[in-house]
Here is the input.
Amino acid sequence: MKGKKVKNKKITMVEETQIDRLSDLPDGLILHILSLMDTKYAVQTCVLSKRWKYLWIHISSVHFHSKSFSRLEDFRSFMYHVLQRCKMSNLLAFCHHSHNYLNEEDKYTLDRVTDLTVSRRLQELILTFAHLDRNWHTLKKLDLAYSIFRCQSLRVVRLENLFDFGNFPDSLELASLETLTLTRVTLSSKNHCNDLFSKCGKLQNLVLHKVTIRISSVFNISAPELVNLTICSPEFETTNGTGKHPSEKKVVVRATKLTSFILSVDHKLYYFSIYNSPLLYYVEVKASGVLSHYFNNGRYVLHLIDVLRELGNAKSLAISGNILEFLSKNYSVLEHQSSPFRNIESFKVLGQENKSKMMEWSKVLQFLLQDSLIADTMFFEIQKGKK
Here is the structure.
């Protein structure tokens, strides 16, 4: 009797494990799950049963990853198939990740994006391509339709390695945009008083990573709701035959709600101004390139201090070790300068490996923090470390 009970119990357990609990879920929840997946695997669910055969065509987000395919031709063919079959009117997010650089064969992708933005339902747009280190300027320019830059429904936009596509507008008319990330994209303006972001009334997060700025003089970042700003090593290009040196270019930030600012500088410093940002709390400053070539360059040191001074109202400061090292090597230039920061309440050096060098940088730290609330505590800890 006991043997039969054990056997029946095992059969019951096997039956329970074979129950298709996923298919018991309502279509709306299943579609939500499929919309979060790589679309290649979402489509493969069509073989599960008759119910699943056409379910995937109603997904609200597509995620195309070329690395999921052994050949780019197969990737493009699959994407073409999906976009021909799925209900385009349902799509709220279009995410495209290619490990190849942007070229003429991607025109179909850009055209489909245009169709989606014209429909005024798309909320998230991600287009990323591989970085082409050299000769990207020889590529044929591909235009993005103006409907992309005027789509009233877009909330998140990320463009990466689109390089110099031919028709970036003077102004983005994206009324619902909340987060914008641009990486290695060329921003140009025919308008001398360019104001690219002023019509993005809901923009809260802005990342400009190694963008090329093709303007005549001043690059304006004006966004009333901007909270988080990241600028990493922008590249300025001379326009209109002005012949101006990059250090004569200027970035002007006007954002009254700005609270966090991450700035990555390199050897190509530029003038920088930040106006009316009383809520600025966190500032992170790091060097993306090697600054050792500029040791004993007093002009560069003063330029860097001017940039830091524009961030002087911040209360929390994080700074990279290579900047502290650079300033330490040029400390003689700092002796007659005032500290750029006034209200620092918390401070850290980026990089765990740099903590052992705090004593070497004590003079620079004293210069940076001498007018701050934590100055006495910081210098006590440094002196304590020396002992």
